[in-house]
């Protein structure tokens, strides 16, 4: 069984494309610093179905017990400190498969 913490975000209107792309680059880099991450994908929505949510990512970890380890890892906390102020809204969804 695996767990997929998934996130979609709306950036604040004044946030530049460079910052948005930096967030994607930085979220993908978490796989290099957080051992519990087994896979990660991220990208920009390309349809009109996103209701204003522009970017999203899915992080794969092996078990529920790894979720707080990932969430409280310093690399993840650094990512949040850098980018959370640029988010207008965030939707997180965690599921097992």
UniProtKB/TrEMBL annotation:
Stress-response A/B barrel domain span: 3-95
PROSITE patterns from the UniProt entry: S_R_A_B_BARREL
Superkingdom field: Eukaryota
Family annotation (Pfam families): Dabb
Assembly: Homodimer.
Protein name: Stress-response A/B barrel domain-containing protein
Organism: Mucor velutinosus
């Amino acid at each position: 069984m695996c767990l997929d913490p998934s996130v979609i975000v709306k950036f604040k209107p004044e946030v530049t494309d460079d910052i948005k792309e930096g967030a994607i680059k930085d979220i993908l880099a978490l796989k290099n610093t957080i051992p519990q991450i087994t896979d990660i994908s991220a990208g920009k929505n390309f349809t009109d179905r996103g209701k204003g949510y522009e970017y999203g990512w899915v992080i794969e970890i092996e078990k529920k017990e790894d979720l707080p380890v990932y969430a409280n890892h310093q690399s993840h906390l650094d990512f949040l400190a850098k980018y959370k102020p640029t988010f207008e809204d965030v939707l997180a969804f965690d599921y097992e498969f």
